């Protein structure tokens, strides 16, 4: 790959929205209040992407592991997702946002699944921003699902095992039709991927902030993309290869 695969503004931004619980605890409020404040920060992030011309935004809203949280917190989150879908979808549609969901949606209630399907159908033709909500999503599950899909084709005689390479696997993963995330942001101070887009983040630039998700603002997002714009992405090559003409003085 060459330097021209690194646009100044990320084509695809992937975000772990962490810190809602601590935001609420610091105010001596229930964790659900933090999630509600987190929903407002989602709008800040979407507005930012629309303004900057970022084409795709993937948000980690609920992991496969989050089902193990206390029942009242899971219930509050489900209610919040339902309300957010009822409240926001028409406006997002009007603004040219395509909404879709990745993850095990069969684990959600019938009413939530119906709203997810409605949001996807209504906005399917939109092109300005692809908004992907990862819900009941796990990166390992995503890879396992892709592997099973290939194995099924092999078992049915539709695919030769020799034809399985990383491109074949990538084509069966979530987000196969989108460019891999250029930039990953995690709020809340922890420096880990937490079973998010494990496959898709292989060469993504990572950016972490101590800010708690509900405190996210335009300044922080701008800082993240400024930092990203100053990075040299080498994809395993040398600086001279990805940046011909520049004096090579950085280590591989
Ligand atoms: C992590 O913070 C956040 C979540 C598990 C939920 C994310 C949900 C939202 C931001 C709400 C709305 C989302 C949409 C798409 C409408 P945490 O609870 O783990 O925080 P902590 O680390 O401080 O405990």
Architecture overview:
It is a single chain. The chain has about 250 residues and is α/β, with parallel strands linked by helices. It has one domain (about 10-230): 3-Layer(aba) Sandwich (Undecaprenyl pyrophosphate synthetase). Helix content is about 40%, strand content about 15%. It has eight helices and six strands, in the order βααβαβαβααββαα. The protein has helices at about 20-25, 30-50, 70-95, 110-125, 140-155, 165-170, 220-230, 240, and strands at about 10-15, 55-65, 95-100, 130-135, 185, 205-210. Strands 3-4-2-1-5-6 form a six-stranded parallel beta sheet, sandwiched between helices. Strand 3 (about 95-100), helix 4 (about 110-125) and strand 4 form a beta-alpha-beta unit. The mean pLDDT is about 95. Farnesyl diphosphate (FPP) binds near residues 17, 20, 42, 66 and 188. Keywords: Cell shape, Cell wall biogenesis/degradation, Magnesium, Metal-binding, Peptidoglycan synthesis, Transferase. It catalyses: 8 isopentenyl diphosphate + (2E,6E)-farnesyl diphosphate = di-trans,octa-cis-undecaprenyl diphosphate + 8 diphosphate. Homodimer. This is Ditrans,polycis-undecaprenyl-diphosphate synthase ((2E,6E)-farnesyl-diphosphate specific).
């Amino acid at each position: 790959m060459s330097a021209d695969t690194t646009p100044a503004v990320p084509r695809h931004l992937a975000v772990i929205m962490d810190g809602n619980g601590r935001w609420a605890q610091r105010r001596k409020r229930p964790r659900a209040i933090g999630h509600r404040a987190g929903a407002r920060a989602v709008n800040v992030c979407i507005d930012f992407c629309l303004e900057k011309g970022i084409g795709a935004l993937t948000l980690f809203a609920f992991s496969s592991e989050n089902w193990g949280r206390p029942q009242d917190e899971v219930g509050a989150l489900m209610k919040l997702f339902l309300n957010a879908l009822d409240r926001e979808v028409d406006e997002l549609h009007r603004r040219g946002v395509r909404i879709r969901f990745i993850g095990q949606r069969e684990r959600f209630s019938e009413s939530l699944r119906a709203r997810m399907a409605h949001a996807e159908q209504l906005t399917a033709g939109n092109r300005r921003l692809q908004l992907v909500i990862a819900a009941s999503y796990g990166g390992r599950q995503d890879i396992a699902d892709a592997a099973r899909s290939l194995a099924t084709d092999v078992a049915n005689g539709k695919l030769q095992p020799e034809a399985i390479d990383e491109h074949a696997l990538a084509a069966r993963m979530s987000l196969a039709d989108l460019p891999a995330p250029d930039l990953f942001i995690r709020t809340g101070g922890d420096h880990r991927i937490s079973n998010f887009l494990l496959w898709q983040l292989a060469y993504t630039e990572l950016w972490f902030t101590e800010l708690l998700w509900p405190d996210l603002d335009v300044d922080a997002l701008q800082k993240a993309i400024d930092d990203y714009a100053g990075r040299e992405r080498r994809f395993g090559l040398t600086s001279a290869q990805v940046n011909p003409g520049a004096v090579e003085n950085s280590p591989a």
